[in-house]
Design goal:
Layout lengths: L26 E2 L11 H10 L12 H11 L6 E4 L2 H12 L6 E4 L5 H9 L3 E4 L18 E5 L11 H9 L6 E4 L20 E6 L12 E5 L1 H14 L6 H12 L1 H24 L3 E2 L6 E5 L5 H10 L2 E2 L1 E2 L9 E4 L3 H22 L6
Parallel strand pairs: 1-11, 3-4, 3-5, 5-6, 6-7
Antiparallel strand pairs: 2-8, 7-8, 9-10, 10-13, 12-13
């Protein structure tokens, strides 16, 4: 850090992205990317848009808004599009949090929430999850600040019901409630249907996971027009051309190709279920995931050991150092073939640990 760096960021601890390996080939199950390519529609539309890259992208994302409006059954002015969903989360922290409106979120959740609170210089009220990693909705009733809830949660994968989400929103009518639905398509119920009923609800989604556009960087906010106007004020004050032309076109294609979306999503859900079953047979404890990842631990193998042993075998998963979850790893659901390789390696690691515990050689 240079001596010119502002003191206001002196204590900032940045978000650490998942490893993006270079050189060596890995089975990459650490960043919750899709194992499938983008929709053929998305690819074709993006290629066609490349011919006009000399021009600025449409700052209003009009065609994308109209496509999303038809898809979700809402008005176009209920949408805003951003450079990944992280950008709209940052706008939400900037717009709705200050010294008298702290950010309220769980102790185990998406790591960027704590970072955004630090960047924006706002206080944070952190509410612990229960011992089983579930979130108690009543902990957020009358929260006294802007509520941020990932649903399904990350890295646990556990989801609240739409009814529980509505209870939280209804119990905080004087505050904004942000529901981060990055993984909602893999088994949770969306809160999008509530945005016309509650003017204090902002739902965020991403095209990175279920729509295979992680490299395209496309996020989406859904709310009443007044909240969208708030976000647009910040977006136009920072970077009105934040979503490129090829990304807008790819997003349109991804929304239009419902059949491909459902096919890929259903395959991931199926592979997740079969992988969880076999992990449990190996002695792993897995949370009840509604996301495109599995959150697991084994009583005989520490989380860090399991992560390192897998990496040595050419398989990447995500390990976290936070005390409550340090014995677990988050495992992205890849293709059926990738998960077979992962399960074979997991079985080897567990058997080696069992032999060692029984007094035999570890390998």
């Amino acid at each position: 850090m240079s001596r010119y760096f502002s003191e206001k960021y002196g204590g900032l601890v940045p978000y650490v992205p998942g490893e993006q390996p270079r050189g060596r080939s890995f089975v990459k199950l650490n960043t919750n990317e899709s194992p499938f390519p983008p929709s053929p529609y998305a690819q074709r539309f993006a290629r066609e848009a490349a011919g006009d890259l000399r021009l600025y992208s449409d700052p209003e994302c009009r065609r994308l808004r109209e496509t999303a409006a038809e898809y979700f059954g809402l008005a176009p002015d209920c949408f805003v599009f951003t450079n990944g969903s992280d950008e709209i989360l940052y706008f939400a922290f900037s717009a709705y949090c200050d010294s008298s409106h702290p950010a309220v979120f769980a102790d185990i959740t998406y790591g960027f929430y704590k970072v955004f609170a630090g960047v924006c210089g706002v206080p944070a009220r952190i509410i612990p999850l229960k011992d089983d990693f579930t979130l108690d909705p009543e902990d957020y009733f009358g929260a006294g600040g802007t509520v941020f809830i990932a649903n399904p949660n990350a890295p646990t994968g556990i989801a609240l019901t739409p009814g529980d989400i509505e209870r939280i929103v209804a119990a905080n009518r004087d505050s904004i409630v942000v529901i981060d639905e990055a993984y909602v398509d893999f088994g949770a119920g969306s809160a999008v249907g509530l945005v016309n009923k509650y003017p204090n609800l902002l739902v965020t989604q991403t095209f990175s996971k279920s729509r295979s556009l992680a490299g395209g960087r496309l996020g989406m906010g859904i709310a009443c027009p007044e909240l969208i106007s708030d976000i647009e004020t910040l977006r136009y004050s920072t970077n009105p051309y934040n979503v490129g032309s090829m990304t807008q076109a790819a997003g349109i294609g991804a929304l239009l190709d419902r059949e491909y979306f459902e096919e890929c999503r259903n395959k991931i859900i199926s592979v997740r279920g079969s992988t969880e079953k076999r992990l449990r047979e190996l002695g792993f404890d897995c949370t009840d995931s509604s996301a495109n990842f599995i959150f697991a631990e084994h009583p005989r193998v520490s989380g860090e050991t399991f992560y390192r042993e897998l990496r040595e075998r050419g398989i990447l998963v995500r390990h976290f150092d936070a005390p409550r979850i340090s014995n677990r790893n988050r495992i992205t659901v890849g293709s059926a073939e990738e998960m077979e390789l992962f399960l074979a390696a997991a079985g080897e690691i567990v058997k080696a640990a069992e032999r060692k515990d029984d007094g035999g050689p570890g390998d």
